[in-house]
Structure formats: structure tokens, C-alpha cells
TrEMBL record:
Keywords: 4Fe-4S, Gluconeogenesis, Iron, Iron-sulfur, Lyase, Metal-binding. This is L-serine dehydratase. Its EC number is 4.3.1.17. GO terms for molecular function: 4 iron, 4 sulfur cluster binding; L-serine ammonia-lyase activity; metal ion binding. Residues 17-276 form the Serine dehydratase-like alpha subunit domain. The keyword Lipid biosynthesis does not apply. Residues 270-303 are annotated as: Disordered. Residues 283-303 have a biased composition (Basic and acidic residues). It comes from Paenibacillus tianmuensis. It catalyses: L-serine = pyruvate + NH4(+).
């Protein structure tokens, strides 16, 4: 890749009079040796998988294998359609779609890790709801995924996208930044505005710990995806309105790395701290362990 920072990415786009998406497509062609058509076709398949996960999560609500979660996406979608959501119908719909994809993931369905399975709902939630709202073509959304991918590339190579390394800020935070920056570009914002959106988004999730109850990507992960989609919309709107990240976005990414490195082990996907170790969190964990032990005993008796 010819860029390693968001600043370099924006400068390349400006000097070549192109968008982040188009620049990333060309970089992918060079990196993979595939044709432009092949690269775009693969990304289009990813987007179809995202849309199918949204549809399945809304139309076929399924409980997770643990039984801890499921059905919230449908509840929020119904409220968005017939209620009077405080966040507005569009934001509430994005939240519902993000929940839907995360619930599909928890029920062992097919999703696209964007950038991880734990944060897989945010980009689809923002993209699919925006496509419906603005009447965009699939091709436009596919280009948006290339923009999001370029942002994710910078974050991954200068910080982390792993909850085990940097906490939930690295997973959900990164996804929010990727979605916000891509949405700015899809709505006609400049590369500079898109990069500011990334910084605005990431600053709002600095220090977010990874504390999955029972070590499962369910509680609080699914809800964080839903709220993350709304955060992405807000960051994009701020950037489009002209709000700038006073601390440059690349510096924010650097802070995310140092904050993640300073996090205790208990707050980095181990389920040894945070919500996982609340009285209710421990109780749910023990219930799942008992169920697993009983299931194993029943299988042995059957054999």
C-alpha cells in the first residue's frame, strides 16, 4: 500500500483527484494481482452477505446457542417503524440492523468480520439503512466498503483491531470509525472530512473494555454494535457539518494503541473483569457451565 496513515491517504486522494474508495480499489489490484473486476466482485459478494444477515436477523429472529440473546433486533425494528424513537427513525433502523447482524453471528449464522466478528453489525447497520434511506445502488455501497477497508487497514497497522490486545475500543471502536468515514465519502464529503469523522468516532470509544459475559460474543457485544451504528451516524454528521477532530485522527489511533496496551488483562476479552464479573454475569456463566456439564453427562449415559 502506498499509504500507512490517514493523512497520507487523504493527501494521495487530493493529489490524484480521486476518492478513498477508488484509490483503495487500485491498491487492491496491485496488491493481489487480480483484475479490477475481480476485486470489485469479491467485495460485492461481501456486501450481499451483509444484506442477507440483516434480512435474516430481522425476519427470522433466532436465539443464540447459549440462549442468552436473540430477538432484540426485531423489537427495535418494530419500534422504529411504528413508534416514535427518540433517536429518530433512521438512526433507530440502523441500530436495529446492527443488532440483527450481531444476533445472526451469535446464532452461528454467516456474517462478514468488519473488522471482526465481535463488531460485525456496525458497518452493515449503517450501510444497509443508509442505502434504503437514500436510494443508493449496491455499487455505491460496495465502493463504500473499499473506503471503510482503507480506514481499517490504517487502524490495524498502527493500533489494533483485536479485543484481546486493545479491548473493545479496538473492535467496536474501529468499526465505528470505518463506518463513519465511509458514510461521509458516500454522502459526498471530502477525503479530509472522512478522516476527521474517523477521529471523532474513535475519540468517543477510547478506553472501552472488552468484557464478554461467559466469554461469548453476546453480552454486551450485541448491544454495543447497535449503539455503535448510531455513534457512526453522529460522527459522520459532525464531519459533514464541518466539525474537525482537533487531535489529528492518526494521533487518536496512536492513543488507542497506548490505551489498549495499558489495559489490565481482565479487560481484554478474558471475561475476568467488567460486566463479566458482576453478580449477574457470574451467575449466567455458572448456569451455562452447569448446562454444559449436564449435557455432557447425558451424552455419556446415552452412549
Amino acid at each position: 500500500m502506498r499509504f500507512h496513515t490517514l493523512r497520507q491517504l487523504a493527501e494521495l486522494c487530493r493529489s490524484e483527484s480521486t476518492t478513498v474508495a477508488h484509490l483503495m480499489i487500485e491498491e487492491q489490484v496491485k496488491e493481489t494481482g487480480e483484475t479490477r473486476e475481480q476485486v470489485i466482485r469479491q467485495m460485492a459478494e461481501y456486501y450481499q452477505t451483509m444484506k442477507e444477515a440483516v434480512r435474516r436477523g430481522i425476519e427470522q429472529p433466532t436465539a443464540s446457542r447459549s440462549g442468552l440473546t436473540g430477538g432484540d433486533a426485531g423489537r427495535v425494528a418494530s419500534f422504529a417503524a411504528s413508534g416514535d424513537p427518540s433517536s429518530g427513525r433512521e438512526a433507530c433502523t440502523a441500530m436495529a440492523y446492527a443488532l440483527a447482524v450481531s444476533e445472526v453471528n451469535a446464532s452461528m449464522g454467516r456474517v462478514v468480520a468488519t473488522p471482526t466478528a465481535g463488531s460485525c453489525g456496525i458497518i452493515p447497520g449503517v450501510f444497509v439503512s443508509s442505502q434504503e434511506r437514500f436510494g443508493w445502488s449496491d455499487e455505491k455501497l460496495v465502493e463504500g466498503l473499499f473506503c471503510a477497508g482503507a480506514i481499517g487497514y490504517v487502524i490495524a497497522n498502527n493500533s489494533s483491531i483485536s479485543g484481546a490486545e486493545g479491548g473493545c475500543q479496538a473492535e467496536v471502536g474501529s468499526a465505528i470509525g470505518m463506518a463513519a468515514g465511509a458514510l461521509v465519502e458516500m454522502r459526498g464529503g471530502s477525503p479530509e472530512q472522512a478522516m476527521h469523522a474517523v477521529g471523532l468516532a474513535l475519540k468517543n470509544t477510547l478506553g472501552l473494555i472488552c468484557d464478554p459475559v461467559a466469554g461469548l460474543v453476546e453480552i454486551p457485544c450485541i448491544v454495543r454494535n447497535g449503539l455503535g451504528a448510531v455513534n457512526a451516524l453522529a460522527a459522520a454528521d459532525m464531519a459533514l457539518a464541518g466539525v474537525r477532530s482537533v487531535i489529528p485522527s492518526d494521533e487518536v489511533i496512536g492513543v488507542m494503541l497506548s490505551v489498549g496496551q495499558a489495559m489490565p488483562r481482565e479487560h481484554r476479552e478474558t471475561a475476568l473483569g467488567g460486566l463479566a464479573q458482576t453478580p449477574t454475569g457470574r451467575k449466567l456463566t455458572e448456569q451455562l457451565r452447569d448446562r454444559k456439564r449436564n449435557g455432557t453427562s447425558e451424552q455419556k449415559e446415552h452412549v
